[in-house]
Amino acid sequence: MALTIKLTQKSTKHMIIHLGGSLDTVTASQLDKKVDEVLTGSPAHLTFDMENLEYMSSAGVRVILKASKGLEKNKGKTTFVNLQPQIKKVFEIIRAMPDMSIFSSIAELDDYLDSMQKRVLGQED
């Protein structure tokens, strides 16, 4: 599934990134490039609108965390709105993880995130 990215300038220092589709290993580089472009404008506030985002893997999580850290360096703020239940679950899982790695590989983490999102959507195998 493809990733759609749309930017909306809310104010001179507030940018909204609207995401749709799938944010995964294949599509994460698209968002990474777009975030880099946005951060060159030194926004004070970046909002990710995830209303139409259907799936997110660990690659997507990495891009989101990188964006947040980039903003924090300049005392900026990152917010998230309109999370679908399965995407919210990914954030809950990530927040619950200790600082140390609990997965043996990226593939294992992606499998886990995939199964949790399917469970939330009632699509268990």
In terms of topology, how is this protein built?
Elements (H helix, E strand, L loop, with lengths): L2 E9 L2 E10 L4 H13 L4 E12 L1 H16 L3 E5 L3 H12 L9 H16 L4
Parallel strand pairs: 2-3, 3-4
Antiparallel strand pairs: 1-2
Helix pairs in contact: 1-2, 3-4
Protein name: Anti-sigma factor antagonist
Organism: Desulfatibacillum aliphaticivorans
GO molecular function: anti-sigma factor antagonist activity
What labels describe this entry?
4 strands; 125 residues; 4 helices; anti-sigma factor antagonist activity; globular; Anti-sigma factor antagonist; alpha/beta; 4-stranded mixed beta sheet; Transcription Regulator spoIIAA; STAS_dom_sf
What's a quick, concise take on this entry?
With 125 residues, this protein is α/β, with parallel strands linked by helices. It has helices at 28-40, 58-73, 85-96, 106-121; strands spanning 3-11, 14-23, 45-56, 77-81.
